[in-house]
Amino acid sequence: MARAGIAAVLGLALTLLLWPSSAAAYPAPGLVTGAVGIHDPSMVRTDQGYVVYGSNDLLEARISTDRTAFTDAGSAFTAPEDWWAEISPEQNPWAPDVSFHNGRYYLYYAVSNFGRNTSAIGLATSDTGLPGSWDDQGEVHRTDEGDDYNAIDPSLLVDDDGRWWLAFGSWWTGIKVIELDPATGKPLPGGGQPHGVAAADGGIEGPALIKRDGYYYLFNSYGTCCAGTDSTYRIRVGRATSPTGPFLDANGVDLRQGGGTFVLESHGRWIGPGGQSVLNDVDGDLLVYHYYDGEANGAPKLGVNLLDWSSGWPVAY
């Protein structure tokens, strides 16, 4: 066989090894114990250990010193912010995104009128990142009934050149990206319309935007959440050379045209993985997500897996 032919066969074999051909090939979540019931988790490492924030209960919090044993730590907020009532009768924030930049912790979150695109993304900041320490900075971006997209599920990326980008969105016309002002953490004055970067029939939400080895990677949750063992969430990804796309999957299909390479989906007892975020930790990049436990009456639980990037694409292990 010619050298080129051998290389092609080896490349195909590597692809088959890296991309699961069946649900059984996906890994189980890494070991976590204690208070691990949560939705839409976002994790940050602080001087006090790890903090995870999730949807509901004023952004419920879990803390851990070793990334394994987690305890309930209250919530990000101690009371609803006054402006939430303009958006959401429930005043129940969702889908936090927590990160550390320039000596401060930033917490982006969503408030929404459930099932409608009357929504807003808010921002809070903290010196410690701990529950109860957050100072709300108000509204970042808002959508109303006349809009064809939804301002929920924020994900912040701070680029190598110091530019700030926020991915967000769901359903309707899908996932968007806007540029932010690093001085305020809010949109640049006159920044224009958000860039459309992903869409899908049957539901798409929960973007997580990161940069790795010169590429921008956009993880999204596809399907439906929050239905216990009937949930159909699965995590797919595309990559681009610009934070505003176009994002293509491993087969070259645009995420705006329904593309997306699978990272994780239902397998065994671990149903509907999604609501994901990515944390760069001391031992590599972590995929942090929730799933529904088929052996615990569909209870939502925290999932954590490391990502292998050796193929140029994220593979959970």
Question: Which helices and strands appear, and what pairs or packs with what?
Answer:
Blueprint: H1 3-18, E1 33-34, E2 42-46, E3 49-53, E4 60-64, E5 69-75, E6 94-101, E7 104-112, E8 119-126, E9 135-143, E10 155-158, E11 164-169, E12 175-181, E13 186-187, E14 195-198, E15 204-212, E16 215-222, E17 234-240, E18 261-264, E19 270-281, E20 284-293, E21 299-308, E22 315-316
Parallel strand pairs: 1-5
Antiparallel strand pairs: 2-3, 3-4, 4-5, 6-7, 7-8, 8-9, 10-11, 11-12, 12-13, 12-14, 15-16, 16-17, 17-18, 19-20, 20-21, 21-22
Pathway: Glycan metabolism; L-arabinan degradation
Signal peptide: 1-25
Keywords: Glycosidase, Hydrolase, Signal
CATH architectural type = 5 Propeller
Number of helices: 1
Helix/strand-derived category reads mainly beta
Strand content: over 45%
Q: What fold name stands as the CATH topology?
A: Tachylectin-2, Chain A
Total number of beta strands? 22
The profile of the biggest β sheet is: 5 strands, mixed
What is the CATH superfamily? Glycosyl hydrolase domain, family 43
Mean pLDDT score, rounded? 92
Query: How many domains in all?
Result: 1
In terms of quaternary structure, the protein is: single chain
CA-based shape: globular
- Poorly predicted runs: 1-21
Organism: Streptomyces chisholmiae
Pathway: Glycan metabolism; L-arabinan degradation
Protein name: Arabinan endo-1,5-alpha-L-arabinosidase
Keywords: Glycosidase, Hydrolase, Signal
